[in-house]
Amino acid sequence: MSETDAIFTVVIVLFVGQILAFGPIIIIGKLGGPKIAFYRILHISWMSIGIIDHDGSRKWTPIKMADIKTLSPPHIEHKGRTRYIDNTNFTRRLGAPAQEWHIDNSLPLPLMRGFRDVILDPITVTKAYNTDILRRFYNLSKEANKKSQSNKSQYILMGLGIVGAVLAAVWLAVR
Questions:
Q1: Residue 85 and residue 47: Cα distance in Å, rounded?
Q2: Helices marked H in 78-139 — which ranges?
């Protein structure tokens, strides 16, 4: 084995070793950290809780949904404190439900309460309901059948073209 082959082999081994070493680290980082990656890979349902400190910084912690005590009212025990959960007050963080609390308060912050007291105009609701969305939705299968028929004709034309090309090639080869 020559010197260049040895150097090439060492470079390949180092490259493959680097991929094997740093690949899982990058994947775990993209999934949100080791604990969240563990929950996601094993399909464990989880939620993210955020605690806001006195200086305003947030510390996010993932917890299993199984850790939620479903007594009345639902709550969790986190670092020796009871944190109550509002089922109508979830937001999303890293693809999972999330809630936030101040460090001294056991009630969650009202994150999604901005539009609770808005009264909807019945005329607007009627106009939104009477659009042609439902008609188009019910006609999707009919449109799909029409498209499949046009695809059949395209396939027939392509097949005839290929057969014609093969026949032309055979005719030119025989001449």
A1: 11
A2: 122-129, 133-138
DSSP letter (8 states) at residue 66: G
**What does the pLDDT read at residue 93?**
84
Neighbours of 63 (CB within 10 A): 18
What's the pLDDT score for residue 118? 58
Domain-by-domain residue ranges, the chain?
A: 3-31, 44-102, 122-174
Cα dist from 51 to 109, 130, 171, whole Å: 10, 45, 80
Rounded to whole angstroms, the Cα distance separating 79 from 58 reads 15
Distance CA 36, CA 61 (A): 9
Among 94, 93, 96, residue whose Cα is nearest residue 29: 94
Q: Are 139 and 131 in contact (CB under 8 A)?
A: no
| DSSP 8-state code for residue 118 | P
CA distance 65 to 113: 23
Antiparallel, parallel or unpaired: β 91-93 and 81-84: unpaired
d(CA 51, CA 167): 75
Residue 91, number of CB atoms within 10 A of its CB:
13
Q: What is the pTM of this model?
A: 0.53
49: nearest Cα among 106, 11, 5: 106
Q: In the chain, which residues have pLDDT < 50?
A: none
